[in-house]
Amino acid sequence: MTKNNHDKAEADITTQGQNPYEIVKSLLKESVHTLGLNENVYHVLKKPMRMFEVSIPVRMDDGSIENFTGYRSQHIDILGPTKGGIRFHPKVTVDEVKALSIWMSLKAAIVDLPFGGGKGGVIVDPEKLSERELETLSRTYIRKITPIIGPQKDIPAPDVNTNPEVMGWMVDEFDQLRGYNIPGMVTGKPIIIGGSLGRLEATGRGVVITIREAARVLDLDLSNATAALQGFGNVGSMTAKFLHELGVKIVAVTDAKGGIYNKEGLDIPDLLDFVGDKENYASDYKNADPITNEEMFGLDVDILIPAAIENQVNKQTAPTIKAKILAEAANGPTTPEGDKILEEKGIFVIPDILCNAGGVTVSYFEWVQNNMNYYWKEDEINKKLEEKMLFGFESVTEMRKEKDCRMRDAAYMVGINHLVKAMHARGWIKDSDLSQS
Ligand code: NAD
Q1: What pLDDT shows up at residue 7?
Q2: Does any domain span residue 169?
Q3: Residue ranges of the chain whose pLDDT lies below 70
């Protein structure tokens, strides 16, 4: 990435900068109230149980030492160990990591996984590091958070700018420290060292299952539908692959560097080939016209999929949206102002904590396989993923009907209800906390 493009991508991220932790707290509070629960429930859920900050000194290739800052947030462990990805990004903040860990708790609860939410982040621009520097950073971060992670405590996974290769270094570092193989300490690993078949595709596959179900609700024929996507990393590219297989015409794709457009539909298999092992940006693909992120949001398509970072559907972009379905493949892509506009426009939102739950679901399957040391075939994993995603989608749409509310509020309420049952069973909250008076 050239310096100019890089600066532009960072500006895109920060101009709409809203604090995701404040957003998640306010949504939690509202949902606790709508469920008729006492505010005490909110007070338990509003803060991660543990927030760890570490320094990560790395010897750079030029001989200097740069000291990076990393975080790991663990929200709540009433259902099992905490679980969630690790993000490498220059704009990582404490509050972002806290919010992401709370979303992970709700997500796991919606699809009924025995996990709480966790999340990690390192303030770094991996594009500026050599491969050796990136490996040293990844290994040092794991060494620093070793006291609080492990297969029964907290299990990391990939997120923005981290991938199976990084997970491979991380599990290796942990194993070397402990002196034996512990594959279940991290998920999203390369298959050969205990990764699960289907994990790389899982988040995108899950996103497409929820889009298929939303289309059923709206009576939308997907074989005649069009879509546009922001982000063509792990989640975006896999979402494009499976949507294309369902016959959806994907007319635009954007990424941190720009975007591409073809009103006849992009050749997705060719684009996937071109991007390959993330050697190329989708926006460098030649057989298409250029398009900006802003223009992409306003396209006349049936399905819009933010699959990049937070706060992209906001008071600037939401008024231009014409799509019938907004599938939040990314975490926290919509600001409260953006959400209000989507509601006024009657757009069917598949909220992030439901839409992208396929990733943590197959991470759970990976962890189960690691624990029993027996590995399933991909068909079996995909079938189990489908069951979990359908369960989550149905629970949320039923709650939406019952409370006559937005899909987002319904998803929060399903997640909170599940956590409340466990909190009550453990005696963290009493009968008196189950009502407002
Ligand atoms: P990734 O690093 O593989 O890809 C991120 C993509 O977003 C890249 O194409 C990048 O160019 C693009 N991008 C970054 N900044 C942008 C900007 N300002 N404008 C437009 N595009 C931009 O990350 P990923 O794993 O695909 O994660 C994407 C989102 O999905 C994140 O919000 C992540 O938290 C969420 N998510 C990921 C998983 C998973 O399994 N990887 C699971 C659940 C949720």
Answers
A1: 35
A2: yes
A3: 1-17, 278
Of all protein residues, the one whose alpha carbon is nearest to atom 36 of ligand 1 is 330
Cβ-proximal residues to 370 (8 Å cutoff; 6+ apart), any chain: 151, 183, 184, 194
Residues 6+ apart with CB under 8 A from 219: none
Q: What is the CATH number of the domain that holds 303?
A: 3.40.50.720
281 C-alpha vs ligand 1 centroid, how far in Å?
13
pLDDT tens-digit profile of 219-237?
A: 999 999 999 999 999 999 9
Residues 257 and 141 in one domain: no
Angle at 352 between CA 350 and CA 355, to 5 degrees: 55
| Residue bearing the CA closest to ligand 1, atom 32 | 330
* pLDDT reported for residue 18: 83
Tell me which residues have their CB closer than 6 angstroms to ligand 1. Answer: 9, 12-13, 158-161, 203, 230-236, 254-256, 293, 307-309, 329-331, 356, 359
Count of domains observed in the chain? 2
The answer to whether 17 and 314 have CB atoms below 8 angstroms apart is: no
Q: Verify that 248 and 347 share a domain, yes or no.
A: yes
| Catalytic residue positions, numbered | 119
**Ligand 1: which of 255, 272, 291 to mutate, most ligand atoms within 8 Å of CB?**
255
- pLDDT at residue number 5: 37
Is residue 159 domain-shared with residue 13, that is, in the same domain?
Answer: yes
